[in-house]
Amino acid sequence: MLTEKQKEAEVRKWIGISHGLTVDLGGKNCTLCKEYDATDEDGWHNCMNADQIEHCPVAKESGMNDCAYTPYGKWLKHRITTENKITHEVRGTAVCMECRVLALIEMHYVYKCIDKHLGFNRHRVATR
Ligand SMILES: [Zn+2]
Fold first, then answer.
1. Ligand 1 center to residue 112 CA distance, Å?
2. Domain that includes residue 102, residue range
3. pTM of the predicted model, to two decimals?
4. Residue 123 maps to a domain
5. Which end of the chain is more exposed for a tag (fewer CB within 10 A), N or C?
6. Does residue 125 form part of some domain?
7. What is the CA(13)–ligand 1 centre distance, in A?
8. Does 127 fall in a domain?
9. Separation of 27 CA from ligand 1 center, angstroms?
10. What is the dihedral of CA 54, 62, 73, 105, to 10 degrees?
């Protein structure tokens, strides 16, 4: 189960990416991938938590593993088809307006998935 702090970290990461301040390293720096990093009996990553009980909230929302058919795919597609040719960096950080918009869409999507599927109260004021 993710904590409120982990949710904030993931949201903050995508805001950072949209501002060109943080980088996307795929599963290597995804809070959700770290939590839901189990593999099935055939050794395939299956977006479940270690005890194979809970699915990643993004997989729950999309019905697919590995962020397929989510805004992450649109981000990645733009990165591969456009930015990779210039920067030779598939993931990385936002370098154009489309990158910024796609990173913010991903941020909203992750936020929604976590709130919806893990029961976070979106109206609660964050305290620290
Ligand atoms: Zn771009």
1. 23
2. 4-118
3. 0.86
4. no
5. C
6. no
7. 17
8. no
9. 20
10. -100
- Give the distance (Å) from ligand 1 centre to CA of residue 21: 14
Distance 42 CA to ligand 1 centre (A): 36
pLDDT of residue 52: 86
124 sits in the region (left: phi over 0; alpha: psi -120 to 50; else beta) called: beta
86 is a domain residue = yes
Compute mean pLDDT per 10 residues along the chain, 128 residues long, and list them.
89 97 94 91 88 92 93 94 77 94 97 87 55
* Interval between CA 23 and ligand 1 midpoint (Å): 13
pLDDT (0 to 100) of residue 127: 56
Q: What angle do CA 64, 55, 46 make, to 5 degrees?
A: 60
CA of 107 to the centre of ligand 1 (A): 16
Query: For residue 40, what pLDDT is reported?
Result: 84
Question: Could you tell me if 24 and 17 are in contact, meaning their C-beta atoms sit under 8 angstroms apart?
Answer: yes
pLDDT reported for residue 119:
76
